[in-house]
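Attaching the record inline, Q. Sequence:
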Amino acid sequence: MICSVGLEGMRGYIVNVEADVRLDKEQCVIVGLPDASMKESKERILSNLHLLDLDLTLKKITIHLSPSDKRKIGVGYDCAMLLAVLNKMLENPLPINEQTCVLGSLSLQGEIVAFHGLMPSLQQALQLGFKRIFIPPIDTSFLQLNDDIEIVALKNVEQMFDYLNGQLSLAMTRLTVVKELIPESNFDMTTDFNSIIGHETAKRALEIAAAGGHHVLLSGPPGCGKSMLADAFHTIFPDIIHEQMLEVYSIYHLAKEDASFSQRPSYRAPHHSSSATSLIGGGTYPKPGEISLAHRGVLFLDELGEFPRKALDMLRQPLERGEVTISRVRQTVTYPAAFTLIAATNPCPCGYFGSNERYCTCSPQQVKAYQQKVSGPLLDRINFFLQLKSVGMRSGISGESSVVIRQRTAQAREMQQNRYGPHFLNGNAPSHLLVEACALTSVQKQYVHEVCYANKWSNRTQLKILRIARTIADLQQQEELQEAHLEEAVSWKQDALVEGSVHG
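Structure, as predicted:
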């Protein structure tokens, strides 16, 4: 039996490949819910068996892929199926154990070639605990592997056969670089925070949001600086760690999007005319959408009120769970979508409702209909509501640079990684972990209860206060939560409820 890896979205599972060869009419059959591309694999397998001078006269080959109830898609099982057949036809079985995973497609000439989905399959194979992985000849220098993990990159079937028989050492295996992956430590800052004049309150909120992964909604008239602040928001995001880089690169590879292997988090800004499928993901043959391409990074939705309400309502699950599940007739797939949302909107169709600068030309019905495009449940998942006003021209540059702010957010996120692991931040950590991390004193608990009772806030709102307060403490590099942190978090929540009521 040969092991390979199948994908359901970005989640991998072990595929066991076994073969049976018996005397019968010459034929090759693949069972185990293969798709059309896999059914064509039988011709590639037969061609490679002929290249190895194996006698196929009156041989019926049956290849089984288990688990049988999961649909197998793609051509990445070719090598595993060929080895399963060789194991049955050769006198001496090949030295392949259950700790070995085989990934690779075949050409008719016996070459082992890369396939669509190779990177996520390789990433999932590492997570599934395989100790030896056979892959096509690609550059693997970007991987940070433990000493007990062996990546074997082989050019063709003959070389793979020689390697398994001990006739080829790993040191002699020369790699042909398919795509050079260069880690990027620098990036082009389109808008630096010190180039934004005024908006000090908004800058403070964005710093907290970047440190803890909290979602933000910016509202204000045209030209007040919403898009500029959103563009600068990405520049204060800390670099992601290597494990997350590999995860993000795998998502882009699965979506057939160009991306470099970079430490910088993703920044996606889809147009408001984008469909629900392009935003969330899916299609006849499901692939990741914009929210998954923004995984570990920023999703900027400009003109939030112009997006289809159906698409916006679909954001509720990923905002809360950090992943999106797409159900189709043929299969159900799950893609990671742990992004930080920053949205910008006008208060009305003309943009000047409540402004002191220009008269609003919208009727009350138009204002109400425009604001109700964003549903209450979606607004309930946003932590910061910032009402911006136009800032007059001033001389000089204001505030700290993005580099300085990013150092603080990076230190805060390092504390959170030490506390929760690499998968959670204060903004999306499970409630029991968050409460344990806050460790409120009896006085602090009494303060939170009194404030929430006076304002008639729900338990969800109390949890949001703790999330923001914990992030404020992390920015100050303090393990213990102080009363000042809670007071600032309460003030942000009071502002959020005032602004949220305008858009609700």
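The longest helix spans residues 483-503. The CA atoms of residues 112 and 151 lie 15 Å apart.

More tomorrow.
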